[in-house]
Amino acid sequence: MIGKHADLNEFNDALQIWVNNHTHVLLLDQITLEVETIYRDSFNESVYCFVERTAKEKFIVSDDGRSLFKLDPSASDVDLIATIGDIAIASEFNFNLQNGVISAKADRENLIDTIMRLAQLQVNISYLN
Hints:
4 helices, 28% strand
């Protein structure tokens, strides 16, 4: 039962451990991290976000074009591309029509939130298949 304060603390600790064990971060180069999130998409594949440092406390978080590539590797479905762009923009992300990259700027304060929101967005987009 999770009614007691001690039980709640134990549950919270277990949840944090699970998230830590199921989130993996890889340093790709001096300014870029690859984050394997806890999310799985409609293909039952891990969802990745890429974090690029642009200044001391500034970052760009992106999907590196993976959302579009998974659904349309040849990037030939104009309607799908437009739909992904509309969904990304409605979710307060940027969408690059040339390369299909979904991204957002972040600072240290909102970096984790931006990563998690992008990961959830990628899951949502994956169900367009």
